[in-house]
Design goal:
There is one protein chain. With about 375 residues, this protein is of the alpha+beta class. The chain folds into two domains: about 160 residues, no CATH class; about 170 residues, Alpha Horseshoe (Serine Threonine Protein Phosphatase 5, Tetratricopeptide repeat), CATH 1.25.40. The chain is built from eleven helices and 13 strands. The protein has a six-stranded antiparallel beta sheet with strand order 1-2-5-8-9-10, with no helix packed on it. A hairpin with a 4-residue loop joins strand 8 and strand 9. Helix 4 runs antiparallel to helix 5 and helix 7 packs parallel to helix 9. The longest helix has 15 residues.
Length: about 375
């Protein structure tokens, strides 16, 4: 007789659960990311100013033949209005479509000269015929501007829009223009309108804060990073005491550091900035003893740029004594003699350097220098 086995409890449980979930329409679809219908495109754009990151997220509606029927209409209403659908709050325009537009700044910034702390903000615009009030709000999770609360505003700024784009922009876009090392103009562009606002950063303070943050982590054990941070402080005349600690630490043999020219010259420069000239001279002498021919040449050029011609000539002469008859040493002496007015010796070393030029670019530059010196003209420093 054949015995028929009944399904095990695991199989029964699986069948019951399957039947339960299949009876819930969309239960799994809610967890699955699928393309949207494409009516309003999801967009993001960003820009970095110095060490400051700007990022904007928005849904981009289309004009769809509504030129002249966008601004001051229910599509993009003027001022504040009750939007309905369960919302009874007077609200500004959401500066996009669907969810609220958001903009984030990784450091403190100014918007049209007004301070705004680092953070993420909902971005709204109260539109008017000849001006726009930009609103940065704390509530970044609301749907559009339906549940707007003015008490959550962090900043309001008034700007003037432009209404004369050369052609209609079909999709609402956020653009960046006039980018410098410390500012950029962000603009909402849609149909024929452009609504610009200037974002600026304190480049020195934000960069210093970023360096300090990085050097408080793993990079604080990396000699090249410590030297780079100290050099930035030296070049920008800020944070000299901490920079001196960084560059001194960079020479610690326990970190693999060595008394390199870059470390020692930076250390000397920081001491000089702090008025410790005797210590600076002592350290710089050691730095030059450890310098390569090109490092010495570069330091001499740096002194020339500072119009310290006598000191530069001393470095070029030391480089020649240390490294002998080489192309960089003759180029240095050419520039040094020219700077102190001895064009005869400058021409002598220019001709020697020309014969040693390592490539066509340097050869052409030296040919031009020889010609100038033969005409009795000093070289530009």
């Amino acid at each position: 007789m054949t015995v028929q086995h009944q399904p095990g409890w695991r199989k029964i449980a699986f069948l019951l659960l399957s039947a339960f979930f299949l009876s819930l329409p969309g239960a799994f679809a809610q967890m699955l990311a699928l393309p949207d219908a494409g009516v309003n495109h999801k967009c993001l754009a960003g820009r970095r100013i110095g060490v400051t990151d700007i990022e904007i997220h928005w849904n981009s509606p289309g004009v769809k033949g509504r030129e002249g029927k966008i601004w001051g209409t229910p599509v993009a209403h003027y001022g504040f209005t009750v939007l309905g659908f369960g919302s009874y709050t007077e609200s500004p325009w959401r500066a996009g479509a669907n969810e609220c537009t958001t903009v984030s700044f990784s450091t403190d910034v100014t918007i049209e000269g007004k301070k705004l702390p680092a953070g993420k903000y909902a971005f709204f615009i109260a539109l008017y015929p000849d001006s726009c009030t930009l609103i940065f709000s704390k509530n970044t999770t609301e749907w559009g501007s339906y549940f707007y609360k003015s008490e959550l505003d962090v900043l309001r700024v008034t700007v003037r829009q432009q209404k004369n784009l050369p052609q209609s922009r079909e999709r609402l876009d956020y653009t960046f223009a006039d980018h410098t090392d410390r500012s950029v103009v962000v603009a909402l562009e849609w149909e024929y309108w452009r609504i610009p606002f200037k974002v600026e950063v304190d480049l020195k303070s934000t960069t210093l804060a970023s360096i300090q943050s990085q050097l408080s982590g793993a990079m604080g054990f990396d000699p090249p990073s410590l030297i780079a941070g100290a050099q930035w402080c030296l070049n920008n005349d800020v944070n000299l005491d901490e920079a001196l600690v960084w560059v001194t630490t960079s020479t610690d043999p326990n970190l693999g550091g060595v008394k390199s020219f870059s470390a020692l010259s930076t250390q000397a420069g920081l001491h000089r900035k702090k008025g410790n000239n005797a210590e600076a001279d002592k350290i710089m002498a050691t730095a030059l003893d450890n310098a390569t021919v090109m490092e010495m040449h570069g330091y001499g050029r740096q002194l020339l740029n500072q119009k310290k011609y006598k000191e530069a000539m001393g470095v070029f002469e030391k480089n020649f004594q240390k490294n002998g008859d080489t192309w960089p040493t003759h180029v240095g002496l050419m520039r040094g003699y020219s700077a102190v007015g001895d064009l005869k010796n400058a021409l002598k070393h220019a001709k020697i350097a020309l014969g040693q030029a390592p490539d066509d670019v340097n050869k052409r530059n030296l040919e031009a220098s020889v010609k100038m010196l033969e005409e009795g003209k000093a070289l530009a420093q």
